[in-house]
Structures are given as structure tokens and as C-alpha cells.
Amino acid sequence: MTAKIDLFAAAPSLMKNWQRSSIELSAAASLEHANCINLHATEARENGETEQRIYLLPAWREAPCYSDRERAALGWTEALTRLSEGTSHASAFDELKVHFTEEEQIKLTLTINIINAWNRIAVGFGLYADPAAVKAARVAAA
């Protein structure tokens, strides 16, 4: 994929703040490392995630390797990510409340929003997030 624009050159202050917020939320979220799968499988592996769980993620409902808490997070992620499909998120929220405190619900929801936003930025501008480049950018932004 060829980038259509250099985001950090075109809007350096905005993009640095956006990236800093993303990193801060990721560090403060204190949620399981499996949430990193949503951003980069490479990071998930570095955080000890197994190949089996990475490969079975598309079948998270049927795969026995995810906990009820993880299923609640995945269900909530899917419900929020697919809002435009008109799917009700009420049952996903009910399940979320069983496994996550209110603070964790907010942290997870913010994480979902940031990841979805990054996906839309990447698709919109034709960006590819190379794991090594992302790691270097995080170090530079910190």
C-alpha cells in the first residue's frame, strides 16, 4: 500500500498529540495483552500471545481458548465496530458489565475507538503500519 500523505509532516502537532493519547491509553488501560491483537499481531506475540489464539481470533465465539472476559471484550469490540450494520449492542453491553468494572468499560471503549480511528486513518490515507516503525515512533513520542 502506498501512503497518500505523510500525516506527521502535514499535521505534526495534531498527529503527535493523537499518537501520544493512543500510547497513554494503551499504557493506562491495564487490560489483558490480548487487546494488542487488535492493533498488531507482532506486538501480541511480543507480549506472549500464542499463535493459536491469534489465528483463532476470527472464530472467537467458537474457539475454546478465550475466557468469558475476553469474549465479552471481543463482543463489545465487534458491536461498536459494526454500528453501521444496525446490530444491537445491548446484549454485548450486558455481557461487558458482568466482566468489567465501569472504569475498565471506559478504558476498553476508548481503546476500541482509538484502534478504529487508526484503522480509518490508515485505510483513508493508504498507510501500512510496519511493526518496527510503529515501535520506533512510540519510543520517539514518549
Automatic annotation (TrEMBL):
Pfam families the record matches: CMD
Gene Ontology MF annotations: peroxiredoxin activity
Coiled-coil region(s): none
Ranges for domain Carboxymuconolactone decarboxylase-like: 20-79
InterPro entries: AhpD-like (IPR029032), CMD-like (IPR003779)
Gene3D superfamilies, alphabetized: AhpD-like
Protein name: Carboxymuconolactone decarboxylase family protein
Species assigned in the record: Mesorhizobium jarvisii
Taxonomic lineage of the native organism: Bacteria, Pseudomonadati, Pseudomonadota, Alphaproteobacteria, Hyphomicrobiales
